[in-house]
TrEMBL record:
Transmembrane segments: none annotated. It comes from the Eukaryota. Pfam families: ubiquitin. This is OLC1v1035448C1. InterPro entries: Ubiquitin-like_dom (IPR000626), Ubiquitin-like_domsf (IPR029071). Residues 14-92 form the Ubiquitin-like domain.
Length: 115
């Protein structure tokens, strides 16, 4: 398989994916480090039918709200990063982050056999 020559713009353009989590749902989005957060929200809009201005993305590792005008690389979002999605509520405020962790599924006394 031959590789295409890379221009300087393509430097650092290895495809990556991020995990966008909300409640019990995880969306796996393929993206490039150079993509702006707004472009990620546009991909999500197709999946969840929520306008981009009603979405907020938060890097779970740091709790930092991602800026629409900056790229993933600018905000240190790396391959396989987990990002929380919150949506705007009727009162114009954003909902709290609600991401279910795998530990939340383990019930006392069953030894975690539900995995």
């Amino acid at each position: 398989m031959s590789q295409q020559p890379k221009s300087s713009d393509d430097e650092n353009q290895t495809e990556m994916y991020i995990r966008v989590k909300r409640n019990k749902t995880t969306y796996f989005l393929q993206c490039l480090p150079s993509e702006k957060v707004l472009q990620i929200k546009e991909k999500l809009q197709v999946l969840i039918d929520e306008p981009v201005n009603n979405q907020r993305l938060i890097l779970i590792q740091t709790g930092e709200v991602l800026d629409d005008s900056k790229s993933l690389a600018d905000q240190k979002v790396e391959n396989d990063a987990a990002v929380a999605l919150t949506l705007r509520k009727a009162d114009n405020e954003f909902e709290d982050v609600n991401v279910v962790k795998p530990d939340d599924y383990i019930r006392d006394g069953d030894g975690g056999s539900n995995w």
